[in-house]
Amino acid sequence: MSVESQSATPDEPQKRVNVGRRMFLGVAALGALGVAFGNSIQGALSNVFGSGLGGILPIGDHWRIYSITGNYPVVTKEKYRLSVSGLVDHPMTLTFADLQAMPKTSFIKNFQCVTGWRVPDVHWEGVKLSDILNSVGVQPSAVAVSFDSYDHADSESLTIDQAHLPDVIVAYSMLGAPVTTEHGGPVRLYVAPMFGYKSLKWLSGIRVVDRVEPGFWEVNGYPVNGWLDGTTGPNNPDPTLT
Amino acid sequence: MTLAQASTKTVHVLRFDRVQRSAHWANALLFFILMSTAIPLYFGSLFGLLLPRHVIEMIHLWTGLALPLPIIISLVGPWGNAMRHDVRRINYWTRDEIRWMKSLGKTKLEADKFNPGQKLNAIFIGASILVTLVSGAMLQWFRFFPVSWRSGATFVHDVFAYAIFLVVIGHIFMALTHRDALRSIFKGWVSESWAARNAERWLKEEPLGEEGR
């Protein structure tokens, strides 16, 4: 017996209307609207509720913690060492205290993941990568900088020009506190004009090299030049975007 | 088909046939995997990670892609009669049902096989499967979409994940507190007296339950 075959006059309370389909489409439409406008909606929500909401429940503006290995390498500030080597005049190994003794840079910028999530207005503090490079003396044959991680799995790279951008820093503080282990502490890279995967966590080494060595995520298909504005070349055409 | 047994007076009415029961439990298993892999993906920082994140991601991705299969397979083909019947029942609402839903269950209602709350649950879950599937796919194959859409898809996937989580917990709670209805998703049948009390109109229309078993 088919349900639609029920004959009924319009006044009859048992008359059936196919509202189920409309509800289904309504929910689906909400989803589509959310995709189109969710970016602004969650921005507005963050303004109303503050970042506390995102801190408790991961909706929208919330950190998603990635780890390639499934573990976080735990390195104390005391044991932390950053080696700077390769095509440089004075290779050196910096301690956490060495980094803190260098000129400090801080700013507030978004952390934007290539998959879409974003945490706005993050406070970052550390040393400009260019300051470190200048203090070791980059040789003329240098083309790129490679970065190694304490997790022995992740790696990243920047061209020499990219590495000298003013908002590319070796960060030891974020969100107003020392960088936590899950965020890549005690010291991580933060490459403000690019997607999050370029901001290598648990930074252990800086190597100045003669060619761009694609890092872990680039080998897995992400753009080598991860500019936030979607351009693909090594040089961001609009410096104001940084 | 009546499964009345001579030894008892209970008359059995078929509520869910074998295909529907299988689809339900396959669906439940997939939902369970999806929700339990979603938790470490969301709260990895709190729970620690038992498996590498990309392994959990892969399990979540493939389970998500498989999620519509039990429903689709149970709907198409010659075995899908009862399922198609129920989808039609869920789609068609009487004015009484709409009134009942708007009054949150206060008005009088000669209930269909599923009451309006159950219909709404099914519709919401069905649409949510579509929404999370599409938004999840956008997160996986993000290259094809502008960054603002990716952010929107993240937002939608998050909000629907919470909604689904709550609705499924509500569904399980209702099931555990309604033993006769719960039995029917394991064994297929409800008693005629239960149907007379809870699904009067269905019993009038199909006194012996859906065809096929």
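The first strand of chain A starts at residue 16 and ends at 17.
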